[in-house]
Write a structure and sequence with these properties.
20 helices, nine-stranded mixed beta sheet, alpha+beta
């Protein structure tokens, strides 16, 4: 990340210290237009909380109204989410002066964001931004921050190759489902920190123009990462391998939102996607009740293709599968060096039995923390479909407009079932369908899960001690090892700790064990081998 940031900084310093073009004029125009309308909450506009914890939001209105109402109803959650984001930024850029410099860079980088995001969505973001807090005005005004935060997913993708994301999706239809109708499941493994995923929102939105839609999101977000509209068209995002682009374009979540709001079938979804320029690589798994099948739209800054299958089952992880990308060097390197192909192989293995599948079967696969052939590869391994960091998991049955959404923690909590028709057209508080819910994973009550939680608490403590060369008790070091004994990362962290404290024999010992485990990527394996060689030379 440091190299990427330095490159961006150099580009910034060589450029003019620009800002978002025409932002002041647009803000003034929006303010004047906004002041001329009367926004008020209707009986349908509601925020509630499910018995299992997820927030449930229903809104209707035009662009300004949707944004303003969302900000008003979710205000404490919106401001908390902004706190979470900027606290994460402060871990990398602790000084306020440098944070302001970073914001200046982001404004230069997204110089043309007012052209890249359609007008109606900018109005919605403006309405939403009126409820942002004042705490971060020193880094940029509320509208600027809200615009730029919609590109945070993409920027993180570009700068870190999205190793914070390892999403996995599957679609089944015809011979693969009990009634022949389309079923889709996905894990959204976008991870910032635990606090980021505390307040998940299941949204039911009725815009004045286009189709009503439901999505799973977080406060402050108007884009879509997982959703279904009233026509039974679904969309889920899966990141691909990206280079570092020189300019921002349309955030991928805005592309997904536009498809969900305006497409009723696969053909229309493809047409809409072709109309956008993006600055990262992304697979958009599109499911359609009208077509009773699914495809992957594969987009990157330079190429566009659609991947289709004829065997009634479609998989999507984090690399491209269509013919246009078969000779793409970046995509080929990503397949060979990352954990994306491993997870795709795991999906194929998980759905290889003869017979049909139901939503409960999909949930079981999405929650599977094992590797190929059910091997124990350690909890939290990026090669697992369930990496124990998912923001959410969701299952769609488009023909019946049914959507199952997971609750915390990760995708292990209860999957609540929503009937979109009732959610859109009922003034009563939103309620999931109790008889259709998929119970919480029994794994939550096991010693293994308790051990994993202990592991997650110890891991940052030992990593900080390694960085600052502080001493950690032998009991804590042993506890880390015992709490997750089959994960390669456990031994890598212990090796790094002993290396920092110049205990070359123990460092070598732990690096050797780490290399004997299922390491999540070739890059991680190469780093371990280098550290092992250094430690051995010190002996």
């Amino acid at each position: 990340m440091c190299r990427a940031f330095c490159l961006f900084l150099i580009l910034f310093l060589l450029s003019s210290c620009g800002s978002i073009k025409n932002l002041k004029k647009e803000s003034a125009r929006f303010q004047q237009e906004f002041d001329s309308i009367n926004v008020r909450l209707e009986s349908e506009d509601q925020l509630s909380q499910s018995p299992y914890g997820n927030l449930q939001l229903r809104l209707k209105g035009n662009d300004f109204e949707l944004g303003y109402k969302k900000g008003l109803i979710t205000k404490p959650f919106l401001q908390h989410q902004e706190d979470v984001f900027f606290q994460k930024v402060a871990e990398f850029v602790p000084k306020p002066r440098r944070q302001r410099l970073l914001m200046k860079f982001l404004k230069w980088y997204h110089l043309d964001i007012l052209q890249d995001i359609p007008l109606s969505y900018r109005k919605e973001i403006y309405g939403l931004s009126r409820h942002a807090g004042n705490k971060y005005d020193y880094v940029g005004n509320k509208y600027e921050r809200s615009l730029l935060l919609h590109g945070a997913h993409d920027i993180g993708h570009a700068m870190q190759d999205l190793m914070l994301v390892g999403c996995s999706s599957v679609a089944l239809w015809d011979s693969k489902t009990q009634d022949g109708k389309l079923l889709i499941g996905r894990n959204f493994d976008f991870y910032v920190n635990d606090a980021f995923a505390v307040n998940k929102i299941v949204e039911f939105i009725a815009p004045d123009e286009g189709y009503k839609y439901a999505s799973v999101s977080w406060p402050g977000m108007i884009g879509v990462v997982s959703g279904m509209n009233e026509k039974g068209l679904t969309i889920t995002l899966n990141a691909g391998k990206s280079s570092i682009p020189l300019r921002g374009k349309t955030p991928i979540s805005i592309v997904a939102r536009d498809i969900l709001q305006h497409a009723q079938n696969i053909e229309k979804a493809i047409q809409i996607a072709k109309g956008f320029e993006v600055f990262i690589s992304e697979s958009l798994l599109i499911g359609s009740a009208q077509d009773n099948r699914a495809v992957n739209i594969e987009m990157s800054p330079k190429r566009f293709d659609v991947f289709e299958v004829n065997n009634d089952i479609l998989f999507c992880t984090n690399h491209f599968q269509s013919s246009v990308y078969t000779k793409d060097k970046r995509n080929k390197a990503h397949i060979s060096s990352s954990h994306s192909q491993y997870r795709l192989d795991k999906l194929e293995q998980s759905f290889s039995k003869k017979g049909t599948y139901q939503p409960e079967d999909i949930a079981k696969v999405l929650r599977d923390e094992t590797g190929l052939n059910n091997e124990d590869i350690g909890y939290g391994n990026e090669k697992a479909l369930n990496q124990l960091l998912a923001h959410h998991a969701v299952i769609f049955k488009p023909d019946e407009l049914l959507m199952w959404v997971s609750n915390n923690p990760y995708q292990l909590g209860t999957f609540e079932a929503y009937d979109l028709r009732k959610a859109f057209h009922n003034e009563k508080p939103i309620q999931a369908i109790k008889e259709l819910e998929i119970p919480a994973d029994p794994f939550l009550k096991t010693k293994a899960f308790a051990d994993f939680q202990q592991f997650r608490g110890l891991l940052p403590k030992i990593e900080r001690a390694t960085k600052t060369k502080q001493e950690i008790s032998d009991s804590d070091l042993q506890l880390l090892e015992k709490s997750n004994p089959n994960l390669w990362l456990t031994y890598k962290v212990l090796g790094d700790y002993h290396f920092k404290h110049q205990n070359w024999e123990k460092a070598s010992h732990y690096y050797e064990i780490a290399l004997s485990k299922e390491v999540s990527s070739e890059k991680a394996k190469e780093q371990l081998q280098k550290q092992l060689l250094k430690a051995r030379k010190k002996l």
